[in-house]
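Obj.: predict assembly geometry.
Materials: sequence records (below).
Method: joint structure prediction, all chains together.
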Amino acid sequence: MTSRVRFAPSPTGYLHVGSARTALFNWLHARSVGGTFVLRIEDTDAERNRTDLTDSLLAELDWLGLDWDEGPYFQSERRDRHREVAEDLLERGLAYLCDADNREVGGSALVDGLAVRFRMPAGATMDFDDVVRGKVSFATDDLEDFVIWRSNGSPVFLLANAVDDADMGITHAIRGEDLLSGVPKVLLLLDAIGAPRPTYAHLPLLVNEQRKKLSKRRDDVSIGDYRARGYLAEAMVNYLALLGWGPPDDVEVRPLDEIVELFRIEDVNKAAAFFDLKKLEHVNATHLRALSKPDFMERVTPWVGADAPWPTDRFDPGRFSTMVDLVQEKLRTLGDTPRFVDFLFLDEPVDDPDSWEKAMVKGPSAAAMLDGTAVALADCPWETEAILAAVSAVGESLGLKLGKAQASVRVAVTGRTVGPPLFETMAKCMERDEVLRRIARARARL
RNA sequence: GCCCCCAUCGUCCAGCGGCCUAGGACGCCGGCCUUUCACGCCGGUAACACGGGUUCGAAUCCCGUUGGGGGUACCA
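Observations (raw structure tokens):
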């Protein structure tokens, strides 16, 4: 039988990293075994759902590259089927009507304003074999009757989820461990309606530094936010795959298709994983460096457009393109790009107090360096090597190695102590007059 | 409280009875390279929670303890 999995988010917020990881593992399993990936929106709780959130959910999945084969199905459109099952269970006495105080009310047909609870059998044991956890067992005596149909006429998650999985022929339910304790109830429902039980795989939770389940309120978990900060989809997905799973050959940073090749749901481990931003950055930087020039240029566009920290009309695509060759390898996210090139498109170098303090105030012989450089650069050939030689010579005359010597010149021209290769930047992207003007301006400020 | 789950370096992953004086990655700390930063390279730091078993032999199996987490809604 071919494997069918589903990602079934409820549109109550933006897609967050935990859900994305669940979606990814379902997708990976489907793609690695040639199965079908179904997308189902679990919008049974009308009060908390918003359609615009559904749209953003789909957009984020699309961005991540997690394409689905079926759906999206909307649980809200299956209300009649859910009602049918609730009525059936009620008629068969497996469930009963109850009022707002959870008191049983007689009757074997749905009644407006009354909820329906499933009757928990006594003395039974519900056990199943979880792909990642192994044998798991619950005693029904520890569980209580549970609501399957609300008094407002809508199905509860447990019922809708069980019925939909059964109707959609889901063979593997891959989801977060927070849903583990709900399994016995779902099993009871499945057994009651005579549907086969899917195979379960409960993924370890993603946790924060306090080791608590990642939460929208406390933690930085929106996939959209990461995208906006300049993380690449392939890096996000690559990093997420590393949480709870590891490639057999220890090669961690790699393309998705290779991960599909290597992934096996049974290799997923059980312990909760900390979402480590530092490692995400590393993975991102590695993917970013591997981008071809055209690809990089296309992806960085949003960061150098209207929202960039310089007047749009001063942006020069040609110079920027040249700069990309010099700075791409230094970036950790696309969002880092502006601060490596902004000085080119601003009227004056950036004003960074720390840099000024470090190079101009505390640094050695800043005044002499600037004076000497101004003279040396006034008539040297405007080429990288010549500029390097000129600045180097000025430094030497002051007993400074190039590393120290270039600091004040760098801050005078760019505003910062850190940035792209200075002489190449000047030669290829700046006019001699502008460089000299900035050096003079800095000198005057000393 | 009750139920369930988990437990290897700070973090992620490897290890699935002998190959382990425990391996890789991120981070961190040195060094090299170097016009800053970064990249790259070299080196270092650092873990099998504890206690009992089982076994010739345990990080690996079993039990307990401790610690952590999840669930316990007419949320999903």
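Conclusions so far: Chain A is about 45% helix and 10% strand.
To do: check interface contacts against the pulldown list.
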